[in-house]
Amino acid sequence: MKSDMKISVLYDEDSIARRNAELADAIVAAKPHELLVVAVLKGSFMFAADLIRALHRAGLEPQVEFVHLSSYREATVSSGQVEILKDIDSDVRGRDILLVDDILESGRTLAFAKDLLMARGARRVLTAVLLEKPGKRAVQVGADFVGFECPDLFVIGYGMDVAHSYRQLPFVGFVEQGA
Ligand code: IMP
Ligand code: MG
Question: Which ligand gives the minimal distance to the CA of 129?
Answer without folding.
Answer: 1
